[in-house]
């Protein structure tokens, strides 16, 4: 499929052929959903921790005598029934990550790219570079391109001035091509790829 190549000044800079094996698939929501779940679970810290009865700092003395009180028989105060006692079956530190085959992860990325292409939400730039590194100037250029909520993917290295200018603009993310992922693609309205990013993706999925 062919698409226009734009400059940052919203001028046309020719066309580019996007590979159908990457951008022309029929999107599968099940694959994309599995990948998003894989990413979000992998990001969870898993540092939650509740003290059980062996960890709380309370006296170990028997609360009252065994017989003659007319109440239930109790031992020390560390049991979960009492305030200040340990929690029964509380959360402990663990990894929430799940397994997902490498080929499935790669396929999910291609389907996410195809979903953006099918929705007409892919913009191809000739390059992502500015001379002054000023946020105001870059914001004005994004307004011409109608980029209010976008993920911008450049080549292997980000141009420092562009990255510096873009980092203060709300709802704009900039990543090198090796950082492209399904979750970030879906959380932004537009996907902006430079020509270098398109070439790198085609080389990656060749």
Could you walk me through the main structural features you see in this protein, from its secondary elements to its overall organization?
By secondary structure, this protein is an alpha/beta fold. It has 2 domains: 2-44 and 97-204, Ribosomal protein L4/L1 (Ribosomal Protein L4, Chain: A); 48-95, no CATH class. It is 34% helix and 15% strand. The chain has a 6-stranded mixed β-sheet with strand order 2-1-3-6-4-5. Strand 4 (150-154), helix 5 (160-166) and strand 5 (172-176) form a beta-alpha-beta unit. Helix 2 crosses helix 3 (102-118) and helix 4 crosses helix 5. The longest helix is centred in the middle third of the chain and has 17 residues, at 102-118. The relative contact order is 0.18.
Helix and strand arrangement:
Elements: E1 2-6, E2 12-17, H1 20-23, H2 29-43, H3 102-118, E3 122-125, H4 135-145, E4 150-154, H5 160-166, E5 172-176, H6 182-187, E6 190-194, H7 195-204
Helix pairs in contact: 2-3, 4-5
The H-and-E topology, N to C, reads as EEHHHEHEHEHEH
Mind telling me which CATH architecture of the largest domain this is?
Answer: 3-Layer(aba) Sandwich
What is the percent of helical residues?
25-40%
The termini sit apart by 16 Å
Structural class: alpha/beta
Main sheet strand line-up: 2-1-3-6-4-5
The main sheet comes to:
6 strands, mixed
In the predicted model, the low-confidence regions spanning at least 5 consecutive residues are none
Corresponding CATH superfamily of the largest domain: Ribosomal protein L4/L1
């Amino acid at each position: 499929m062919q698409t226009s190549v734009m400059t940052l000044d919203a001028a046309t800079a020719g066309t580019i052929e996007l590979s159908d094996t990457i951008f022309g698939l029929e999107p599968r929501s099940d694959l994309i959903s599995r990948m998003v779940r894989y990413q979000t679970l992998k990001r969870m810290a898993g540092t939650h921790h509740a003290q059980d009865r062996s960890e709380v700092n309370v006296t170990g003395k028997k609360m009252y005598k065994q017989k003659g009180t007319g109440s239930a028989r109790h031992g020390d105060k560390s049991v979960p029934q009492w305030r200040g006692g340990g929690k029964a079956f509380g959360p402990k530190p663990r990894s929430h990550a799940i397994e997902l085959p490498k080929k499935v992860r790669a396929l999910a990325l291609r389907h996410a790219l195809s979903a953006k292409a099918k929705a007409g939400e892919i913009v191809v730039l000739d390059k992502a570079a500015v001379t002054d590194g000023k946020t105001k100037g870059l914001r004005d250029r994004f307004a011409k391109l109608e980029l209010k909520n976008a993920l911008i993917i450049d080549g292997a290295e980000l141009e420092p001035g562009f990255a510096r200018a873009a980092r203060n603009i709300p709802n704009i993310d900039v990543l090198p091509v090796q950082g492209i992922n399904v979750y970030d693609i879906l959380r932004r309205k537009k996907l902006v790829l430079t020509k270098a990013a398109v070439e790198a993706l085609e080389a990656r999925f060749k």
